[in-house]
Amino acid sequence: AEPLSSCMVDQQGFESLYRMRRSTFSYICSLVRIPFFEDMMTRGHTFVDGKVMSLQDGVAIALSVLNSGEPSQIVGSSLSVSESTVSVITQRFVEAMWERAFYHICWADAEMEKIKRMFDKIHGLPNCCGVVHTTHITFGSQNHEPGDEQNDDKLMLVIDPDMKFTGTHFGSQNQLSVLHDSSLFKSCQEGTMLNGSKLMLSDGLEVGEYIIGDAGYPLLPWLLTPYSMEDKDLLSADVPPYQAEFNRRHSSASTLTLAALARLKDNWKILDRAVSSFPVMETIDVCCILHNIVIDMEEIEEEDVVGMEEENHIEQVRQVADEDAVRVRDILSQHLTGSGVHTMVAEEEEADVAAVASGSEDGNKEHDARQRQKADRGKEKVHDS
């Protein structure tokens, strides 16, 4: 009998069912072949009619559970597999992926120069290494009630310009506690991360590597948050231009988190289900690993995420920032304003305004074309100059 993954003959049907191309599916099978396949052969998993499952069948079943978020009983019924078999196979797949493919979400020092160039060119943030964001996660949360996020656990993620995750940390406390408990915080405080090449400015000052985060995070030399505007108008004379410009670029880059999280939760719906029969941290990590693999392996046509928002849910903290952190942010933001460098985002916005103001048919066509191109902005590859 043909494996489940061969049931959808046309490419579009396959991608709709498994949320990936066949080549990506085959790569995932190769990752788990040894530990996963050997375990399946030992257990002798079969369909309800007695037919023996292949490796591809097992992977297809596990992906169906993670994709749909449906209980094992429902997935099993639709695929002619017993509920217990679906549960065992999915758990073994998660364990195998976590063991064999974890490097897909590891912090990659070798990629950092490329990541920094992309943040600089696209968002105008030189030496930036990522965006950190904490979101509520339903999966594995105890006593979860629909619409009640108080009991949800927290997932902290670091996102690169390609919308891939370069770090994850799972916790059950508030945003600040999750940060402090993470290996990211400990390593950066000790100087073993974000310790690469520094940005040398014309006046002899320098800015080290950093990531950015929202106002719910503390301002640190390696974690730059936006300036507090306290309901001020960014165009007000009371707001220094360098602060307004820094906040604009900070906000532009931070939108990556919304798009990345929307894709993650849409493709791996198990994360929005209060399911606890699978290992929680490993399952969350594997969904992030699969998210990265799909981006790495395929040219994805970005969906229009205009108007898609995730409520921030941040607990505003009174920032007691050390002098070094304040100095780093001020030096960087004043450099951005003084350099006069236009980012891709700013150039597109200016062109849009000019096109709409002209009111001409050609101008409107140019505006529409640029709107379609914005979906590809985060995927632009920046080559060595």
Automatic annotation (TrEMBL):
Keyword tags: Hydrolase, Metal-binding, Nuclease, Nucleus
Domain DDE Tnp4 span(s) in chain numbering: 154-292
InterPro entries registered for this protein in UniProt: HARBI1-like, HARBI1_dom
Record keyword Transit peptide present: no
Annotated region described as Disordered, given as residue ranges: 352-385
Cofactor: a divalent metal cation
Annotated GO CC locations: nucleus
A molecular-function term among this protein's GO annotations: hydrolase activity
Protein's cellular compartments: Nucleus
Sequence intervals crossing the membrane: none
Biased composition range(s): Basic and acidic residues: 362-385
Coiled-coil features, chain-numbered ranges: none
Pfam families referenced in this protein's UniProt entry, alphabetically: DDE_Tnp_4 (PF13359)
Chief localisation class: nucleus
Family that this chain belongs to: Belongs to the HARBI1 family.
Protein name: DDE Tnp4 domain-containing protein
